[in-house]
Description:
Elements: H1 7-10, H2 20-35, E1 56-63, E2 69-74, E3 81-83, H3 92-107, E4 122-129, E5 135-141, H4 149-159, E6 163-170, E7 183-187, E8 191-196, E9 199-204, H5 216-227, E10 234-238, H6 244-250, E11 255-260, H7 263-275, E12 281-285, H8 288-297, E13 304-307, H9 316-325, E14 329-334, H10 337-347, E15 351-359, E16 369-376
Helix pairs in contact: 3-4, 8-9
S-adenosylmethionine is lined by residues 208-210, 239-241, 244-245, 259-262, 265, 287-288, 308-310, 335.
Amino acid sequence: MNKCPVSEFCGGCQFQGIDYATQLEIKQKKAEDLLKDFHNVEKIIGMEDPDHYRNKIQISFACDEHKNTISGYYIPSSHMIVPVNECLLCDEKLNEIYISVRKILKKYRVSVFDERNMKGCIRHLLIRSTNLNEYMLVLVTGTSSIINQDQIVKEIIKYNPDIKTIIQNVNNRFTSAILSNRNNILYGKGYITDELCGLRFKISANSFYQVNKRQTEILYNTALDLCDLKENDTVIDAYCGTGTIGMAASRYVRKVIGVESNESAVKDALNNKKTNNIENIDFVLDDAGRYMDNLSSHDARIDVVIMDPPRAGSSTKFMSSMVRLSPKRVVYISCNPITLANDLRYLSRYYKIKKIQPVDMFSYTQHIETIVQLSRR
Ligand SMILES: C[S@@+](CC[C@H](N)C(=O)[O-])C[C@H]1O[C@@H](n2cnc3c(N)ncnc32)[C@H](O)[C@@H]1O
């Protein structure tokens, strides 16, 4: 990949200009430094093609001091934007759609949201793609209406026919979160469909979905292998998002329960259960810790827990309840080896760590994804 012209300012890619083999070596060393006390760390599973892998782009808009529109990425830990016309990590068509939509918004004189006075319309663009080449555009606005909305939507679809749905997300709060919960569907059904592990998944604007369009299946299959699933198992898919891993697991076991705190992800998960005709999976909208605590006070029998918490790691409540429930096997998928190490320090008192397998999901960045296999002592 050519060196990105804005990488020094944008901060999204820490490993720009470093060849891919060296990137993997750096990640391997970091994973070993943080995790080797628990178990030997397997060789990281790299990507076959490390370029243009992301299925999601988030672009922010602002005005500079001369009232010119700028659009691009936030400089880390700031509210300043570095102008970006193309992100080399993203699926190339996401870049094309971004430029096309930006042109159309400019043509129709849509105002840009100004954080200083909280006025103006367009604040961010979020564009997602799937392996079925369906695209979703989310126009995040500070205002509840968009000037010339109908013409804008028509023109966006005319020039970008792969966009299957356009959503307006109204976000007029002073916040660093990109999306609010206020969505209006302007075109299409409000979701796009992906295909993964032989299953179909509907994804809506607010739901978490893995961003690496090529490596996710490898991540999931590796995690499922480490679960060593048995026909009679009851499995918890904790922090389940749209239910992807749990549904892939459901083919091999008696019952799966997915638990997730994001309402829109649980709605997607329930839809996905129907779309894929899966009967032996249930989804619960709850804090994963509270749910496990509840289960443990009812003496439920759980054989396997798959846990895939956010970057901050799991909670003490979740882990102590899991220890009380005492599943035979746990597979921990982590996107942050620092919080993973903290959590393993606790879990290793009750569970034997049998395998640590890093998988590269984020080339050109410092992020490390790791799967850990644990079995009850
Ligand atoms: C790293 S994602 C994993 C999602 C899913 N396993 C996947 O592969 O797509 C973490 C998920 O945990 C959810 N989450 C965050 N905190 C939670 C909590 N306290 N209880 C339940 N789910 C939570 C997020 O909404 C997000 O969907």
